[in-house]
From TrEMBL, chain A:
Interacts with HscA and stimulates its ATPase activity. Co-chaperone involved in the maturation of iron-sulfur cluster-containing proteins. Seems to help targeting proteins to be folded toward HscA. Keywords: Chaperone. The gene is hscB. InterPro entries: DnaJ_domain (IPR001623), HscB (IPR004640), HscB_C_sf (IPR036386), HscB_oligo_C (IPR009073), J_dom_sf (IPR036869). The keyword Magnesium does not apply. This is Co-chaperone protein HscB homolog. Coiled coil: none annotated. The lineage of its organism: Bacteria, Pseudomonadati, Pseudomonadota, Gammaproteobacteria, Alteromonadales. PANTHER family: IRON-SULFUR CLUSTER CO-CHAPERONE PROTEIN HSCB.
Length: 175, 620
């Protein structure tokens, strides 16, 4: 997979972020337009394209959802533009409960503790789905990829909850 | 580092040859130009020894005046004397009037963009800026015995949007300047202090200039400068402190109504008094006018008391910016002072106590931005091949498209590291639909009306299909200067949809070309000569760059490819020397450019591979 090759790291959902960050800078030092400010317009164009690709690769690999979507699409299952919804009543039920809990955080008797507790739940879910994803994406089984797609959809819900939590936290401690 | 450099005979450029590049601080009130000589950045002065060029241009039927002569005429000829045009870049008349109230200018339209009617005709903010830039370029050329200036880094405020950045670049092009990079002002200040190497952390840049105040919070992480937050007040600066003193003089002398010339005297005395108070605890100001003779005593204490509310106002902006950045005051590692007004002891002590940190003031705050720009220009032009400097900027404001219901869908969020390319797919919503219009916006708000309109596109020539069957892929590209370009294609058929770009602000390439022609139409030969020279310089740049690449990486091509590329270069060398028409050179450059495309792409791939393998070789 090109993005992993670019950063010279093994193709694995569990990334080595430190190496990627370090290699990112080495790559930008080589290709960034500032390094080719003096070059011909053809070289400049090439440099902008390469720098943009490396930036995009970094953004993609850094973000757990984007990384999973990218890997899955390279494996032949592209769900990045899909409109499909998740068909998992149990999961959806759990999400609704979490949403309700989230909305009550602000009025909890001890908001700090409630937020910390909620954060812990999200973290657990995140770890659970990520661990499954790593295995599914490492397999060479079409069925596993479909399961991975579902896991990515679930992970998206988890990240939405996390964003929402941050927003609530901000509004609580703003004043 | 190489201890010894061995040049092959016939190698194009001598390794020690110093190329001339400049850094320009195109300021609201004053502009400066700087360059690096013998490893040290310094600002260039005019024949009177002044480094600062007032950003003022006066347009008379007889000609154009730039700088202090123009500034002195401002009171007697306000309509034709353009002051602080930087505030107008990339703006509409409505926006300008909303922000600055009544101005002494007669606004009009010129080819669909904003202009000001003067004695010398319609002048757009871009054109006025180009005259300031041209004056600075001329100063630099004179300083170096008319040696060719190969490129410039021009600074812009961190919060400048695409329209304002594009306008700045257009102005440079009009002035005949090859822009190496548009650099954020606070980043330039940080570079001048050498903060790009070594330290990591959060840097606040407090910039109190003649008429504007900016605060920027930057994060420096692994060589990446990220603008975390910006804020400020576009109508608060040194001039406001001067007018406080003018009021004090009026009160002390008992003179209330001032004639324009006496007002000018008061303002000049106020400026001098303010500057003296930065060094002395007490200043006696002599005011002689209309047969009267007054002496007003001003102590620093009195002045500080008057100035305090304004300084507090800047600190409120600082507090907001720090909050927007999502950090605490204590997390700020360094505070850099920029702008002449930061010489005021009150400003320094207040900023010191606000951030609880001694601010950096060792570099002249008027020059620090220009010096930083010069340092980067020197690296970019290739005078420091061993330099490790790499400034990665981020997009200051999100880019998006208008969707149904007047909402904005973000395509590239703010703070994305640039350059960046993002594609988004759209589909048709009617059967047989062959065109689609898109509206590009910039800003953080959700409603179209609250964001800045950058351009409206219509995609034509979409093959007629059932609703939802056409997939139009729109690609946004933002270059290292933060400038946007857009392209589109229909995916299933591969038809490249025709795009019409109608910039809502700024200028199209054609407009720039036309203005360039217009500005020189009274001297046709001059234009011809200038364009020929520009093409010669460009051709030389291409030849040198390609020769250097071939020396380094010629092995990437086989013998036949090498021979044919070398032949094309030799042809360009010949055309460059003999051509009478700029178009001949241009065509030859394009030919070489096309011939080298395969080589360019192989080199880039090779350098990507080398970037990471070189590292393991070092480790052995």
């Amino acid at each position: 997979m090109r993005y992993f090759e670019l950063f010279a790291v093994p193709v694995d959902y569990n990334i080595d972020l430190a190496t990627i960050n370090k290699n990112y800078l080495e790559l930008q030092r080589a290709v960034h337009p500032d390094r080719h400010a003096n070059a011909s317009s053809r070289d400049k164009l090439m440099s902008v394209q390469s720098a943009a690709e490396i930036n995009d690769a970094l953004q993609t690999l850094k973000h757990p959802v984007k990384r999973a979507e990218y890997m899955l699409s390279e494996l032949g299952v592209d769900i990045r533009a899909e409109q499909q919804t998740l068909q998992d009543p149990l999961f959806l039920m759990q999400q609704m409960e979490l949403r309700e809990e989230l909305e009550e955080l602000a009025s909890a008797s001890d908001p700090d503790a409630a937020i910390a507790n909620f954060e812990k739940q999200i973290k657990q879910l995140n770890e659970q789905y990520s661990a499954q994803l790593a295995e599914q994406l490492a397999s060479s089984n079409e069925q596993q990829y479909q399961l991975a797609a579902d896991n990515i959809r679930k992970l998206k819900f988890v990240y939405k909850l996390r964003d929402e939590l941050e927003r609530i936290e901000d509004s609580l401690f703003d004043d | 580092m190489a201890l010894l450099q061995i040049a092959e005979p016939g190698q194009s450029a001598a390794p020690h040859e110093h190329k001339l590049a400049i850094g320009i601080d195109l300021g609201t009130t004053n502009s400066l130009v700087a360059t690096v000589q013998s490893g040290e950045a310094r600002t260039l002065t005019d024949e009177l020894g002044a480094a600062m060029l007032p950003s003022v241009v006066r347009y008379q039927a007889g000609g154009i005046t730039v700088g202090s002569d123009a500034a002195q005429a401002a009171t007697q000829d306000p309509a034709n004397t353009l002051i602080s045009v930087k505030r107008f870049l990339g703006k509409t008349q409505a926006e300008i009037e909303h922000s600055y109230g009544q101005l002494p200018y007669q606004f009009c339209e010129d080819n669909g963009s904003l202009a000001i009617q003067t004695e010398a005709g319609k002048v757009s903010p871009v054109k006025a800026s180009s005259h300031i830039l041209a004056a600075l370029k001329a100063r630099a050329e004179q300083s170096f015995g008319n040696q060719e200036i190969l490129g410039a880094v021009i600074t812009v405020p961190a919060y400048f949007d695409d329209a304002q950045r594009q306008s700045t670049k257009d102005a440079a092009e009009l002035a005949g300047i090859n822009v190496l990079r548009l650099l954020n002002e606070p980043t330039a200040a940080a570079v001048a202090y050498g903060l790009d190497s070594g330290q990591e952390g959060i840097i606040a840049v407090y910039d109190l200039g003649g008429g504007t105040f900016d605060i920027s919070v930057l994060r420096l992480h692994q060589g990446v400068f990220e603008v975390m937050a910006t804020g400020g007040d576009s109508s608060l600066g040194g001039d406001d402190f001067d007018s406080l003193l003018v009021d004090y003089f009026k009160q002390q002398t008992g003179v209330s109504a001032l004639s324009p010339s006496v007002l000018r005297l008061f303002i000049n005395k106020a400026k001098a008094c303010k500057e003296a108070l930065s060094q002395y605890a007490k200043v006696n100001v002599g005011l002689e006018f209309d047969g009267q003779n007054h002496t007003v005593e001003v102590t620093r204490e009195t002045f500080d008391e008057m100035a305090m509310p304004l300084v507090k106002k800047t600190l409120r902006s600082c507090r907001r910016a720090v909050k927007d950045a999502g950090i605490e005051n204590e997390e700020v590692l360094q505070v850099i002072m920029v702008g002449g007004s930061t010489r005021m002891p009150l400003v320094r002590s207040q900023v010191h106590s606000f951030f609880d940190k001694e601010p950096l003031t060792s570099i002249d705050p008027d020059r620090v931005v220009a010096l930083g720009a010069a340092l980067q220009a020197d690296v970019l032009i290739g005078n420091k091949p061993d330099s490790d400097m790499l400034l990665l900027d981020v997009l200051p404001l999100s880019l998006g498209l208008e969707t149904m219901g007047g909402l904005v869908e973000k395509i590239i969020p703010r703070n994305t590291t640039i350059p960046v390319a993002r594609a988004q797919e759209f589909t048709t919503f009617k059967d047989g639909q062959t065109a689609m219009s898109l509206h590009v916006l910039q800003g953080e708000r959700e409603l179209v009306d609250d964001c800045r309109s950058l351009a409206k596109f219509s995609l034509k020539g979409i093959p007629p299909m059932a609703a939802g069957a056409a997939h139009i892929r729109v690609t946004f590209k933002v270059d290292a200067d933060g400038l946007l370009s857009v392209s589109a294609m229909e995916k299933s058929t591969g038809v490249q949809a025709e795009i019409q770009v109608k910039p809502s602000f700024g200028l199209s390439d054609d407009q720039v070309a036309n203005m360039l022609k217009e500005s020189m139409s009274n001297a046709k030969d001059d234009m011809q000569a200038r364009m020929l020279k520009e093409q010669q310089v460009e051709a030389l740049r291409v030849i040198e760059a390609l020769n250097a690449s071939l020396d380094a990486d010629g092995a990437l091509l086989d013998d036949a490819q090498l021979t044919s590329l070398r032949a094309e270069i030799a042809e360009l060398v010949k055309v460059r020397e003999n051509a009478q028409q700029p178009s001949e050179i241009k065509a030859a450059i394009e030919k070489v450019d096309n011939a080298s495309s395969e080589f360019a792409s192989r080199r880039m791939d090779a350098s990507i591979k080398k970037a990471l393998t070189g590292q393991s070789v070092d480790n052995i």
